[in-house]
Design a protein that fits this description.
With about 200 residues, the protein is α/β, with parallel strands linked by helices. The chain is about 45% helix and about 20% strand. It has helices at about 15-30, 45-50, 55-60, 70-75, 90-100, 100-105, 130-140, 155-160, 175-195, and strands at about 5-10, 35-40, 80-85, 90, 115-120, 145, 165-170. Strands 1, 2, 3, 4, 5, 6 and 7 form a seven-stranded mixed beta sheet that branches. Helix 1 links the parallel strand 1 and strand 2. The longest helix is centred in the C-terminal third of the chain and has 22 residues, at about 175-195. Bound molecules: flavin mononucleotide. Flavin mononucleotide binds near residues 121 and 126.
């Protein structure tokens, strides 16, 4: 069986989704995948980013992580996306990248790949589920295969119980969250291996 190739693509203003993506990378590699950890480009103006200490610090912390390219999207046979909830949908930085993918979509190069998502929000019920559903609507347009965690592991019940994908409260990515992300990443690898194999 071929080694599954997983692109873990994140956007993070303050670090939570970066932490989630890092744990997904660790777990996906442990599960036998070849993994690329990638960030989407920042779209906010430089003076806005640098106007907030926490935003500036996160930008510096993630600056050595490669920005995702169309070549990465072609390379991967599974996608793990993580980005914050903004007004109940995914952060515009992630959407801006997704919106560049029209040419790949038209050629069918995003089809038949696995797809899973995670997010964070400030509040317990701040829109996490709609954010993940909005990502999955995009996955359906691609013809991707959605690999939601459902309730397939006890870690799901212990980390907030979101069957669409793990969701953290901002800044509170703890060990229970790590276990849920690890399960979700391993499940993605497992199904990617079945589909891409
Ligand atoms: C413009 C904006 C909109 C936001 N909208 C929501 C929201 O709808 N619900 C919520 O609970 N938190 C909301 N938040 C908080 C973010 O979800 C939070 O900052 C994010 O999850 C932190 O992730 P990060 O550390 O990876 O940047 C919003 C934040 C910003 C800046």
């Amino acid at each position: 069986m071929a080694t599954p190739k997983i692109a873990i693509i994140f956007y993070s203003t303050y670090g939570t989704n970066h932490q989630i993506a890092a744990e997904a990378k660790r777990a996906a590699e442990e599960a036998g995948a070849e993994v690329r950890l990638l960030r989407v480009p920042e779209t906010a103006p430089k003076d806005v980013v640098e106007g907030q200490d926490a935003w500036k610090a996160q930008a510096e912390k993630s600056s050595d992580i490669p920005e995702v390219t169309h070549a990465d999207m072609e390379w991967a046979n599974g996608y793990f996306l993580s980005a914050p909830t903004r007004y109940g949908v995914v952060a515009s930085q992630m959407r801006a990248f997704i919106d560049t993918l029209g040419p790949l979509w038209m050629e069918g190069k995003l089809a038949n790949k696995t797809f899973t998502g995670t997010t964070s929000a400030q509040n317990v019920h701040g829109g996490q589920e709609t954010t993940l559903q909005s990502l999955y609507v995009t996955a359906m347009h691609w013809g991707a295969i959605i690999v939601a965690p459902g309730y397939t592991d006890p870690a799901l019940f212990e980390s907030g119980g979101n069957p669409y994908g793990y969701s953290a409260q901002a800044g509170q990515f703890d060990d229970k969250g790590k276990a849920a992300v690890a399960h979700q990443a391993k499940r993605l690898v497992e199904f990617t291996a079945k589909i891409a194999g």
